[in-house]
Design goal:
Blueprint (H helix, E strand, L loop, with lengths): L3 H18 L4 E17 L2 E19 L2 E7 L4 H17 L23 H4 L3 H17 L3 E17 L4 E16 L6 E7 L8 H15 L8 E7 L1 H13 L3 H5 L20 E3 L19 E5 L2 E2 L6 H7 L10 E3 L6 H5 L4 E15 L4 E14 L2 E5 L2 E7 H6 L3 E7 L6 E17 L3
Parallel strand pairs: 7-12, 11-17
Antiparallel strand pairs: 1-2, 1-4, 2-3, 4-5, 5-6, 7-17, 8-9, 8-11, 9-10, 12-13, 13-14, 13-15, 15-17, 16-17
Helix pairs in contact: 1-2, 4-5
């Protein structure tokens, strides 16, 4: 692995080549280097494992309102000269784009800790040992288990011809387990994403997936309709992903958003607060342009407080740009998982959603499927597995009708997300699905 100094030195040399070839051009360089290791398993045994090192050098140049980008994975002098020539040539031929913004100059970034040496040292032997631990609960129950583990050790650096120079090393991991009963009627799933080795609990992920598989076997059929539902963190993540993607000031100002006229108003239940903070949510402290990311509260106790503003739209509307965030956390509540079930006369527990898609951006209506563990709740207790459903549900309506939020949080899909489980009402499970 390169050091941050080596990545920044490469970026500066590439900027020097641009300056020499075209003194009037503005340029930005992004250097990504990643060591990626993976182990795959299926039918309860490891099937493949591998490692690769990837280096990507991206160059963007601007000549007035004309711009172009290109990238390379070689860093010898001839390759860099060719990258500069190719990018400048394309920029001269590109049409003018009126929304082109100048590259950033020097910025001050508050660094955070995204790199864990212990995670970087998770070699093939250690990965295999972890997966063996994850497979144990399924083997005890004679289940068929499959899954995937990815581990990353990398760094990113961004520089510009105007003096921008930011960088960050990072580690990351994604681990998921799907367990199936041999009769094909039960399926359980669990996943964890984390940047820290100490949090990567292989056995727990495997155990929860196995428990779901056993519990979901031979599901019964219940009628479609509107239900009180308890959504586990993975399902909550799907809802908030669509919600976060809609937090855009321009689409609001242009009348294309579900949040038109709602800034400063309550848009979801007061139990819900959505934040982004690089110091508490493990995300890069700068965005794709190099703009520093400050702590930001998007929704405070249900009230929409902030929208994302691009640099162009900030200039157009005389606002302050926010930068582009990719990490979010929902504040924890005060309920245990068992308390989420209490008081539910007849409802449904949903482990996760699958193949969700946006139907209507102005109402934030989505569709998708439940999967890998859907259960009937009766009189405050989970009583039986049920067949999966297709859902058609407004995210805003679902989050507005929340009346309980768990105190614990998980990161099932991305390490830069922290999500609780929650309970909501009148959730439309529109039709049955034969998917397991």
């Amino acid at each position: 692995m390169w050091t941050e100094l080596q990545a920044l030195t490469l970026g500066k040399s590439l900027l020097g080549l641009v300056k020499k070839a075209d003194p009037k051009a503005e340029a930005q360089v992004t250097v990504w280097q990643t060591h990626r290791a993976h182990t795959r398993f299926a039918r309860s045994e490891i099937t493949t494992a591998g490692e690769n090192d990837d280096l990507s050098v991206s160059l963007s140049v601007q000549r007035g309102l004309r711009s172009a980008s290109a990238q390379a994975n070689q860093t010898d002098p001839r390759a860099l000269e060719h990258l500069v020539a190719r990018t400048l040539g394309n920029a001269r031929l590109a049409p003018e784009l009126p929304e082109t913004m100048p590259v950033l100059g020097p910025v001050k970034v508050t660094r955070n800790q995204l790199h864990d040496p212990a995670m970087a040292k998770l070699d093939a032997k250690a990965r295999a040992e972890g997966i063996v631990a994850a497979l144990g609960p399924s083997k005890e129950r004679d289940l068929l288990t499959a899954g995937f583990l990815e581990v990353y050790d990398g760094l990113v650096a961004r520089l510009s011809s105007e003096g921008l120079s930011v960088s960050a090393p990072f580690t990351d991991s994604n681990f998921s387990v799907t367990a199936r009963t041999k009769d094909g009627t039960g399926s359980g799933w669990n996943a964890l994403s984390t940047r820290r080795r100490a949090e990567l609990d292989f056995e727990k992920v495997g155990r929860l997936a196995a428990q779901k598989a056993i519990a979901s076997a031979r599901p019964k059929t219940i009628e479609p309709g509107r239900y009180t539902v308890v959504l586990e963190p993975a399902a909550v993540g799907d809802l908030f992903e669509f919600f976060a993607q809609s937090l855009d000031r321009r689409s609001v100002d242009e009348g294309r958003s579900c949040f038109v006229g709602k800034l400063g108003q309550r848009v979801i239940n007061e139990r819900l607060t959505l934040r982004s903070n690089p110091q508490t949510t493990p995300m890069l402290p700068f965005d794709g342009e190099g703009l520093p990311l400050a702590p930001r509260t998007w929704v405070n106790r249900g009230v929409l407080e902030s929208l994302a503003v691009s640099r162009y739209w900030a200039q157009h509307k005389q606002l302050a740009p926010t930068g582009g965030y990719d990490g979010y956390e929902v504040d924890p509540g005060d309920a245990t998982r068992d308390q989420l079930l209490q008081g539910v006369k007849r409802g449904v527990l949903i482990t996760r959603l699958w193949y969700t898609n946006l139907v209507d951006p102005q109402s934030l209506l989505i569709t998708g499927l439940t999967r890998d563990g859907t259960f009937l709740i009766e009189d405050g207790a989970v009583t039986s597995p049920v067949r999966n459903f297709r859902l058609n549900q407004s995210v805003l309506e679902a989050l507005s009708k929340v009346d309980a939020v768990s105190a614990d949080r998980e990161s099932p899909g991305a390490s830069a997300w922290k999500l609780p489980a929650l309970r909501t009402h009148e959730f439309l499970l529109a039709s049955q699905s034969d998917a397991i």
